[in-house]
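Protein-methionine-sulfoxide reductase catalytic subunit MsrP, Aquicoccus porphyridii. Tokens?
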Amino acid sequence: MAYRWKNDLSPGDVTPETVWVNRRRIMAGAVAGAGLGLAGLPGRGVAATGDALEPNSYEDITSYNNFYEFGTDKGDPVKYAGALTTEPWSVEIDGMVERPGRYDFADIMAQMTVEERIYRLRCVEAWSMVVPWQGFELADLLNWVGVRPEAKYVAFETLYRPEEMRAQRRGGGIDWPYREGLRLDEAMHPLTIMATGLYGKPMPNQNGAPIRLVVPWKYGFKSIKSVVKITLTDSEPETTWNMLQPSEYGFYANVNPNVDHPRWSQARERVVGGGLFASKQPTLMFNGYEDDVAALYEGMDLERFY
Ligand SMILES: Nc1nc2c(c(=O)[nH]1)N[C@H]1C(S)=C(S)[C@@H](COP(=O)(O)O)O[C@H]1N2
Ligand SMILES: [Mo]
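Tokens:
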């Protein structure tokens, strides 16, 4: 069951959360009965283990956030990200590409096929959620602008607009704008998406409106929000958390229960919304996407390239 949203989704067309959750329940049942169908593909809502993923509530996903441009508390983004204006919005794509330019968000959306992807999100701080995103494959965008053969990495930047992003006005120890990066093969992997909404609604500001990266097998900080710039390059780009604390946050940041953070274990994770007394669940290698992505890192020392 490859459920596809039309890319001309308007606010009136969105599925209310209750209907959405019920549909998922029905689908989960159907998958269990049908064995391996299209819905069995990892990345389309079904974990590598074959379990259907039960998404967190819209409330959890949109009120417990990391978006340091608005403050460091989990509740800051929902309080302050309303100040962010997301229209007009464009994404500059430059560097080693055939057709560099500043692309209007609406023009990008007109070219891309938006679909649903239900992914685990594992923060490096050892909590996790399951999020029903809408988005399109980053590979489709990169192929549309044309990647030149010498490109080896993709660098991303978040908006820098201190008038609207209150923590940028204070500095806060971060060298703004927030920056992230991927190796080109990671960026082209079919699990890597640019997300433009969740639960059938346009992306809420606190989750990185109007367009953000989602790389489900890496720690959450790689999934950079409110992207305004994408650069194809031949050298490993500088990334925000790595620049801040290189001994704690590597460039790769693949979820790995066997490599602990210097200050805490990564073996288990707290599921957001699980309640005060819920026990932690084991963290999965590559966040449960091992079958899909392990080949990208064959022969690599995952302790050294953390
Ligand atoms: N620009 C920007 N992107 C960001 C962050 C941030 O502070 N600024 N935080 C990251 C971290 S640490 C996580 S865990 C995820 C959280 O995404 P969510 O709030 O949608 O769950 O966003 C990531 N992307
Ligand atoms: Mo995070």
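The mean pLDDT is 88.
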